[in-house]
UniProtKB/TrEMBL annotation:
Official protein name in the record: Methyltransferase domain-containing protein
Biological classification of the source: Eukaryota, Fungi, Dikarya, Ascomycota, Pezizomycotina
Species of origin: Capronia coronata CBS 617.96
A GO MF label: methyltransferase activity
Pfam families, per database record: Methyltransf_23 (PF13489)
Domain of life: Eukaryota
Length: 336
């Protein structure tokens, strides 16, 4: 029976003692998928707007893959993990033999999973070979495309995981779930850890005519213009899981804070990571979409992002990303 739980989404309490200490709102300080072998051509990254981008299936993924973006991804990973109870996975896997991380990015989640489950074979898949060379012995990385046939065979993994793929990392969720269903062992789980690219607050602390909300609106508009989306529809994902044959599906809703405004210590740390990630990484997230899709000039974008960062640093704003975990299980006993 499918069900839904709430995670931390009901309420995140603001740290009033911290807020009262502010003499003024001066702001925070600036402080496969074919299993193809990695070839030299994959490392011939494209350079555009002073940033590097993946070469394998060039143009498919809109974000950079350079050092600055890798830092943002790792910071965002810590913010997300702390926002979801500091757990690697919410799937009830016990002694897994195989774990597949689709869209592994820097490989940080896959490395944590390999350390947590040393007896499991862990495979991380991404378009960019940006992962470290020194990794746990039970972990391997491969360059491949999530939207192509995966080629892993049947009944190999106990968990298939994604994180922050939304509609700009996965073009077809029905295809994704069909492939996941095939390569999972009976009783295995698929888990999507995704955030909705809209910046919101529960207490009205985001001002009218907010630059942050305008940025999110324009970012999503540009994504839509190229057939992608940064929005997350957890109920849509859940339904598509079920259509692929998954059972015991459920949604867990969370809030990933932007800034250390929550009272809860873990969420406060999550907010610190999230604030730094967005402050430092918003240009890389924006440059291709705003310049190449929306037709902005570099000067206009830089001025807009300067306003964005000033607003982002305001301590009185209690903003967060809506965040969801969507889970589904392959039936333990196949039908028929």
């Amino acid at each position: 029976m499918a069900d839904e739980t709430t995670g931390n989404a009901l309420e995140v309490e603001v740290d009033d003692s911290d807020a009262r200490s502010f003499a003024s709102d001066s702001g925070y300080s600036d402080t496969v998928c074919s299993t193809e072998s990695i070839r030299s051509s994959i490392f011939d990254y494209e350079v555009q707007h002073g940033r590097t981008y993946h070469a394998y299936h060039s143009g498919k993924y809109i974000m950079p893959n350079d050092e600055g973006e890798q830092e943002r991804l790792d910071l965002h990973y810590h913010a997300l993990r702390l926002s979801i109870d500091n757990q690697i996975t919410h799937a009830p896997v016990v002694n897994p033999h195989g774990i597949l991380d689709m869209g592994t990015g820097t490989g940080i989640w896959a490395m944590d999973a390999a350390d947590a489950y040393p007896e499991a074979e862990v495979v991380g898949i991404d378009l960019s070979p940006i992962q470290p060379n020194w990794v746990p012995p039970n972990l391997q990385f491969e360059v491949a495309d999530v939207d192509e046939p995966w080629g892993f065979g049947e009944d190999r993994f106990d968990l298939v995981h994604t994180r922050i793929m939304n509609g700009f990392g996965v073009s077809s969720w029905p295809h994704f779930y069909q492939e996941a269903f095939s390569c999972l062992r009976p009783g295995g789980w698929v888990e999507n850890q995704e955030f909705d690219c809209q910046i919101v607050s529960d207490d009205g602390s985001i001002p009218e005519n907010s630059t942050m909300t305008e940025w999110a609106r324009l970012w999503n508009r540009a994504c839509e213009m190229i057939g992608k989306t940064g929005r997350c529809d957890p109920h849509g994902l859940k339904c598509q899981m079920e259509e692929a044959g998954f059972v015991n599906t459920r949604i867990m809703a969370y809030k990933m804070p932007i800034g250390p405004w929550p009272k809860d210590p873990m969420l406060k740390d999550a907010g610190r990571f999230g604030l730094v990630a967005l402050h430092a990484g918003v240009y890389g997230m924006s440059v291709r979409l705003f310049l190449d899709v929306l037709g902005w000039s570099e000067e206009r974008l830089q001025a807009f992002l300067a306003d964005f960062r000033r607003e982002l640093a305001r301590k009185s704003i209690h903003a967060y990303w809506p965040t969801y975990i969507v889970l589904g299980q392959k039936p333990a006993v196949p039908d028929g």
